[in-house]
DNA sequence: GTTGAGCGTT
């Protein structure tokens, strides 16, 4: 991963974690290591990445061996321009296990009896929204899908609850969010009986009732048939005899395009 | 190829 060759978290008991924010999406641990290592002994650097694309989320965690060095790094590297972006270095306030952190050090003397959740400030991730939609649209038959959805669902729940005062829940539902919630809820119910057979892909999702090509071409075509003619599509007007390109764009062949309309209606409804 | 508030992995 983003470590120095290790698979999991090293000895974080005596390490001081620093949160590096506002880093570029291309910045890797190797790029941050020389910068932070100059101010102290860097034990490990971890950059949370996306499960799907693998890109960094824009922040990293640098663990120092000593607090004084970490403090120095915070003062020296905070506001430093890295890769053309001004990074923000500060002590981590939360640990990987939701433990409290004091000056970047994880306090393990936390009572486990108290099932305390992360009461951090509600944060919103607009990236997760489009990313989540992209996920389910591509394929959600992954093994880590459940894990991811659970985490995101929790996260989204927090945000939703917090922002409910600003926007009514109906707004979200009106945007087509209701479907997600419904599925998520049903999934939670199904979690009681974790049966592999039930988790198998339903037959309703196996076939692809949606035809992207005709629908995509049918939509703008129906809207303004003349537009396609005006558009200088010099990509390959004659080199691609695909079904998308109708030989006769005239409305006289509109009956031929009835297939597209049917598909569109089926998909839309 | 894009984006920019925030707190983390085997």
TrEMBL record:
The keyword Repeat does not apply. Residues 103-269 are annotated as: Disordered. Residues 112-126 have a biased composition (Basic residues). This is RRM domain-containing protein. The keyword Disulfide bond does not apply. PROSITE patterns: RRM. GO terms for molecular function: RNA binding. Keywords: mRNA processing, mRNA splicing, Nucleus, Phosphoprotein, RNA-binding. Residues 193-203, 231-251 have a biased composition (Low complexity). Residues 16-94 form the RRM domain. One of its GO terms (biological process) is mRNA processing. One of its GO terms (cellular component) is nucleus. Coiled coil: none annotated. Its main location: nucleus.
């Amino acid at each position: 991963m983003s470590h120095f060759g290790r698979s999991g978290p090293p000895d974080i008991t005596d390490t001081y974690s620093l949160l590096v924010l506002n880093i570029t999406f291309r910045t890797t641990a190797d790029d941050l290591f020389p910068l932070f290592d100059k101010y102290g002994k860097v034990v490990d650097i971890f950059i949370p990445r996306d499960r799907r694309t693998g890109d960094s989320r824009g922040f990293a965690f640098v663990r120092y061996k000593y607090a004084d060095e970490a403090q120095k790094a915070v003062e020296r590297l905070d506001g430093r321009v890295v890769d053309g972006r001004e990074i923000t270095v500060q002590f981590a306030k939360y640990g990987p296990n939701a433990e409290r952190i004091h000056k970047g050090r994880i306090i393990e003397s936390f009572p486990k009896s108290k099932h305390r959740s992360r009461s951090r400030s509600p944060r919103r991730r607009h990236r997760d929204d489009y990313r989540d939609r992209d996920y389910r649209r591509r394929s959600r038959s992954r093994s880590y899908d459940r894990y991811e959805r659970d985490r995101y669902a929790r996260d989204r729940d927090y945000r939703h609850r917090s922002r409910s005062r600003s926007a009514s829940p109906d707004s979200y539902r009106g945007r087509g969010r209701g479907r997600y919630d419904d599925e998520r809820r049903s999934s939670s119910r199904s979690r009681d009986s974790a049966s592999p057979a039930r988790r198998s892909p339903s037959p309703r999702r196996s076939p692809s009732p949606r035809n992207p090509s005709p629908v995509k071409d049918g939509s703008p075509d129906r809207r303004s048939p003349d537009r396609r003619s005006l558009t200088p599509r010099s990509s390959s007007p004659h080199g691609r005899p695909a079904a998308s390109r109708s030989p006769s764009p005239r409305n006289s062949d509109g009956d031929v395009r009835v297939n597209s309309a049917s598909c569109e209606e089926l998909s839309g409804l």
